Amino acid sequence: MHRTRPTLESVALRAGVSRATASRVVNGSTRVGEDARAAVQRAVRELGYVPNQAARSLVTQRTDSFALVLPEEPGRVFSDDQFFPGVVRGVSGRLEEADKQLVLMMARSPAGRDRIERFALARHVDGVMVASVHGADPLPAALARVGIPVVSNERLLGPVSLPYVGVDNAGGAAAAVRHLVRSGRTRIATVAGPQDMVAGIDRLAGYRAALEEARLPARVAVGDFTRESGAAAMRGLLREEPTLDAVFAASDLMAVGVLRALRQAGRRVPEDVAVVGFDDIETARYTEPPLTTVRQPITRLGRRLAEQLLRLAAGERIEPSLVLPTELVLRESA
User: Fold this and answer.
1) CATH fold of 169-297
2) How far apart are the first and last CA of the chain?
3) pTM to 2 decimal places
4) How many Å apart are CA 231 and CA 253, to the nearest integer?
């Protein structure tokens, strides 16, 4: 037998209050006495009442949904790069605790960015997080200009400044290189990340700063945070400087490619060439040899990103930047 869906009126009748009072309780208003609030909440549980989200949004001007925008191709997001699922896990976990919904969106093309901008401008979400931003992407600033709360993973490149949550990329890279210097390595190369991304720029800066401290020359190749680019960059470095004795790769996936290229070239790790990565993804523990790397707190990064956006959307003043610490994890590759 079909059961009629409980209505707000039936909740009010069961609770012995007016419809307006029941509505205020359901929509989270604080302007309700404790006895009335408890009665309405009890009636909601007993009747199995579920608010009409569309109607509720009209009243509260909130959707209880938040977007995580990744300006990447789907093939990159759903790859073996564990940064993306780690961030999503952190964001979704924190939003679930707050009883909010995550909307995951990807856009690498201008058309994709326009689509996301229209979606957000239509107020289908209460705020937007952006991660893995390339260059001076116009989307975050465009959303913020019309009053949509926006928090970024890492600072934005270009003239616009928005709240962000990042990690100590430069400090982590410098710590990796200092470790290589202390272990007696003197011909230290890097496979840097993309130079249109803050992570790539800052990790290269940290590498250069540590080499300048040690009065050692820099040897730089650039990849795109994939293992294929790491292998290709390492082959190029070996052609240019066959006597390299250490490599700092700006991501663990690129370090996996570096290890493969060194093995194919007959170089032993760490006896001939020491290798350090960045991220400390699960794969780092299972390379041969296990990878020394800089750990960034990826899941915690996602949680803090969501926390800052929840606070901003609630009208709170938030810190303009949060920079999480990194940690050098010593294993057998260096």
Assistant:
1) Rossmann fold (3.40.50)
2) 69
3) 0.80
4) 10
- Widest CA span in the chain: 83
User: For the domain 8-60, what is the CATH superfamily, name and number?
Assistant: lambda repressor-like DNA-binding domains (1.10.260.40)
Q: Which residues contact 194 (CB under 8 A, 6 or more apart)?
A: 134, 200, 222, 223, 224, 225
pLDDT per position as a tens digit, 1-19: 455 778 888 889 999 999 8
Q: Which two tokens stand for residue 83?
A: 């940064």
Kindly state the helix (H) or strand (E) to which residue 94 belongs, with its residue range: helix 83-97
Confidence of residue 53 (pLDDT cuts 50, 70, 90): low
Residue 184 burial class via C-beta count within 10 angstroms: exposed 0-12, middle 13-18, buried 19 and up: exposed
Between the alpha carbon of residue 296 and those of residues 87, 93, 305, the distances in Å are 11, 18, 14
In percent, the amount of the chain with pLDDT more than 90 equals 65
> What is the predicted pLDDT for the residue at 58?
47
**3-class state of residue 306 by DSSP:** helix
Question: So where are the chain's domains?
Answer: 8-60, 65-166+299-324, 169-297
Strands 101-106 and 150-153 come out as unpaired
Closest CA to 217 of 178, 192, 186, 262: 186
Number of H helices, E strands in the chain: 13, 12
